[in-house]
Amino acid sequence: MKIKNIDFLLALLIIIVAASFSIIVYLHWVGIGFFIGQFRLSHWLTIIGSSYIAIATPIFIILMRIYPQKTMILFRFHIFGNLVLFAFILIHFASQMGRPATNFPELGTGLAMFIAMALQVTSGFTQRFFPINRNPKALKFFHASLIIIFYAAIMFHVLHGLGIT
Q1: Can you tell me the distance from the alpha carbon of 130 to that of 12, in angstroms, rounded to the nearest whole number?
Q2: What does DSSP assign to residue 165?
Q3: How does pLDDT run across 43-72, given as a tens digit for each residue?
Q4: What pLDDT does 86 receive?
Q5: How many domains are there within the chain?
């Protein structure tokens, strides 16, 4: 099997496992709403996932420019690292959406951040595994520009959580 095929199967497996676990959390078959320190486990998952993506993405870009000969290794680091940590964000989102109506979260910056990340994962997955030859630069631009929305949403989400906005 080619590496690209193995990568596709591994990426698909990560997405299936993440979606399955998110459904389990949403249906309350597994509870992740307990506190660890100041935050619930579900919040720690999204803090870890978002922090990793926010830090690893610029590192990936810098390393790609410094070490262009290591493109495949760096792409695998980028794809699988971000997919696994996006799974953490997906599980957090499922946990939030599964809350009862009396305690439903305020949708806003968190939803914007999740949508931006879901679009980013979808566009990256499409770009890597189903390349469209019509206009690859447009897809690459779309994928890269979503990170700006992600950073802005994180900033406003944290400020909102701290009661500043």
Answers
A1: 13
A2: -
A3: 999 999 999 999 999 999 999 999 999 988
A4: 96
A5: 1
Contacts of 165 (CB under 8 A, 6+ apart): 156, 159
CA angle, 39 as apex, 33 and 42 as ends, to 5°?
40
Alpha-carbon dihedral of residues 123, 59, 112, 116, nearest 10 degrees? Answer: 0
β-strand partners of 35:
40
Q: What is the pTM of this model?
A: 0.89
Confidence tier at 77 by pLDDT (50, 70, 90):
very high
pLDDT at 116 over 80: yes
Instruction: Give the residue numbers spanning the domain of 37.
Output: 3-161
Q: Which residue pairs, CB below 8 angstroms and at least 24 apart, start in 149-154?
A: 149/112, 149/113, 149/116, 150/53, 150/54, 150/113, 150/116, 150/117, 150/120, 151/54, 153/109, 153/110, 153/112, 153/113, 153/116, 154/50, 154/54, 154/113
pLDDT over 70 (residue 140): yes
- pLDDT greater than 80 at residue 3: no
Q: What is the DSSP string of 20-70?
A: HHHHHHHTTSS----EETTEEHHHHHHHHHHHHHHHHHHHHHHHHHH-GGG
d(CA 147, CA 139): 13
